[in-house]
Please model this.
Amino acid sequence: MEPRNDFTDDQKKVIDEVTAELDDLLLDHVRKAHAEAREKLVAAGVHVDPEGTYCHNCLNSAHPCDSYVPGFMGQCKRYTCRHSNLVHNHPR
Model:
């Protein structure tokens, strides 16, 4: 099956709308999961990053990641981490 690129303007608009809706849905789901994770961490007395700077996986390490490649699936820039953006703290 060959990829299409001959969409009409109306079709392109619908594709863009659907893509944006799916991105929003995914990010909302991730934010909800991260909020629940923060609640669990706080309840256990674990340091929590309210600004969403750090990855949950290395939040309490001696050298937590603090920067990642932009984009939903972007990876942490630290060579010792490389966690995806999905595991980074996403506050509301």
